Structures are given as C-alpha cells and as structure tokens.
Amino acid sequence: MARNTMEAWLRDEQGSDVIKRIEYYSVAESRFRSVPMSGATKTEPRMADMSVAVVAKGSAYGEDTATNDEVLLTAIKFGSALRIAEEDIDDQIANIIEAKKLSWASSFGVLFDNAVLGTSAAANGTTVPFTSIYKAIITVDAAVGYTANANYNSIVGTTWNTGGAGYDALSDLASDVEGSGYGAPSNVYVAHPVFRGILRKMKDADGTPIFTSSPRQGDPDTLFGYPILWSSGAVVTATATAGQAATIGGAGVKSTAGNPLIFFGNPDFAIVGKRSGVESVVIDGRDGLSALTDETILKVRARRAFTLGNVKAWAVLEVVTA
Questions:
Q1: pLDDT the model gives residue 92
Q2: CA-CA distance, 248 to 197, in Å (whole number)?
Q3: Per-residue model confidence (pLDDT) at position 173
Q4: How far apart are CA 252 and CA 32, in angstroms?
Q5: Which of 182, 191, 225, 232 has the fewest Cβ atoms within 10 Å of its own Cβ atom?
Q6: Is the pLDDT of residue 93 over 60?
C-alpha cells in the first residue's frame, strides 16, 4: 500500500478528531479559561473585580483602587514517541497513524486534567507540571489572603448515606465558593466518574434526586442545578498520571493517592495557557538509525500551562478513609 510521510511537525486544527478526543477526556481543555501563549511564559491578569458606583450628573467618576495583579503561566511540554514497524503500516487497511494519535489524545486528556486538578505535591515542572487546584486549596496563599484548607472539605467514604452526610458535604462544597465573591452563574462541579453511582441515588428530604442526567446529548448532567463535568483526572496523585484508579470509599487519609475528588468552582479563574496545539511528526523508517529496523517513528506533543487566577474561586471535597 502506498504511503506518504512528512518529516515536519503538523498541527491538528480546532475541530479535528484529535482535538475533539482531547476535549472529550479533559475538562481543563474544554471548559477552563483558555489563553494563547506566544512564548514559554506569559503573565495574565488575576481578574480581580473592578468596582462600580453611581455617578451623579456633573460629578467626577470614582476611581477603582484595586491593585492590578497578575499570575504567571509557564508552558510545559507533554509528548511521547512511538515506533511502528513498516510492515504494520503497509498491511493496515485503516490508518494506524491516525488511530495512534487518537489514543495519545485520550491519554493526554486524562494526564493533563490530573496535573491541573489532583496532584498533591509542589510543582517541579516535570513529574508535577503545575500547582494543581487541589494543592492550591490545601496551601496558604498570602497574595490573595487565603488560609490553607479554607476551601477544603472531606468525607469518610463509609458515611455518604448516613444522616444526609453526603448531601450536606456536596452543599457545603458549593457554599465555599458561592459566598466567596468569586462565584458566578458559570460555576461547575468537576468530579471523578466513580461518583456517578452515589450521586444517582442521592435525594433531598422530599425524595427528589439532586442529580439530574442530561436529557439531550451534548448537554451536561447537573447537581443542585449546576453543571457537573466528569474527569478521570479528578483523583489524588503524588505525580501527574493518566492511570490512577480511584477508590470510591477512599484509599487512605487526606492526600493519599487514589482518593477521589469533587471540585466546585468558577472556570474563569482556572487559566489554561496554550503555547502550541497538538502537533505530530512522522519520521520515515527508511532514514537514520530507524532504517536498521524498518521502523517509522510517530512523535506527538503539546505545550500547556496552568495556574489559578484566585484560589478562592475553587473548593474541593476529598473522600478519605478516616
């Protein structure tokens, strides 16, 4: 079968199958505030509120006194390479290169979400690419007057259905942001899919389910009237990973890898920097050292950054064992 190869980085455009696959698996990619980056770093306004007041006719405008503040985005490269035997490419009726890119997109979506949402360690630019939302919530931030764990909530996994504990925990989670001054009509829940079974059974005092499945394809499910988005990256991990299993009853005490997470927050304050789109290159197996083994190399990469505009705009609920 004839084969065309191009040894140059090619970008997947918006709307391609690869981009759609990433957005399907990644809440951060599809719903968080996205900003383009033209370099390795970029500063972005925190989005502090500007005051508004009544101006009497003929009077001077009052001036806003809020400090202009900004946060720093630093692009991190995510990527991998795959060797494919030339025989497999020649013998495949389907496009094996495209299939592998879609598989990469699925893994990247989960990995990126985990780096954004659930890593528990301090950012190091490698195994922990960013300060995750979870890490930010359990850490003091003097710049915005945030006390460590102020928006942190936990529930013991065995008490979900005891005396309305689960209902109250989910309500309190939202209240942390609703009353902070940083909430908005666009607030969302972000939860690990392991919670679906529990939420489908949870009811209020009148027996009305608090979780509502989407009536139409493409619309989100809702919880307490807010959209709830599902991410397999919403789980505690020591380092960013796309393969951490979540234990519905909790894997251990606070910050134990495997504890599932539910977040509530304002997506406008979760900033995703995009330095480069998803790019791929196919290196022909007839060139260089690959010629010795008849293997074509597929490389795929993307450069992303993440930071919170203000930690007060987000809260987390962690399921623990004690």
A1: 66
A2: 10
A3: 98
A4: 29
A5: 225
A6: no
Furthest-apart CA pair in the chain: how many Å?
82
CB neighbours (10 Å) of residue 179?
A: 9
**Phi and psi at residue 258, to the nearest 5°:** 105, -10
Residue 246 above 60 pLDDT?
yes
Angle, alpha carbons 288-291-294 (nearest 5°): 145
pLDDT at residue 3 tops 50: no
What does pLDDT average to over the chain? Answer: 90
The rounded distance, in Å, linking the Cα atoms of 236 and 137 is: 13
d(CA 281, CA 284): 10
Task: Look at residue 6 and tell me whether its pLDDT is greater than 60.
Answer: no
* Local confidence band at 42 (pLDDT 50, 70, 90 cut-offs): very high
Residues 44 and 271 sit within 8 Å (Cβ to Cβ): yes
Q: Which of 235, 130, 141 is nearest to 182 (CA)?
A: 141
* Closest among 161, 5, 173 to 89, alpha carbons compared: 5
Residues 6+ apart with CB under 8 A from 109: 21, 22, 23, 24, 25, 26, 29, 233
Nearest partner of 103 among 163, 205, 24, judged by Cα: 24
- Give the CA distances from residue 225 to residues 28, 152, 171, 210, in Å, rounded to whole numbers and listed in that order: 21, 22, 11, 8
Structure tokens at 55: 């101006």
- The CA distance from 92 to 83, in Å, is 15
The H or E element spanning position 72 is: strand 70-74
Tokens representing residue 154 in the block: 């936990």
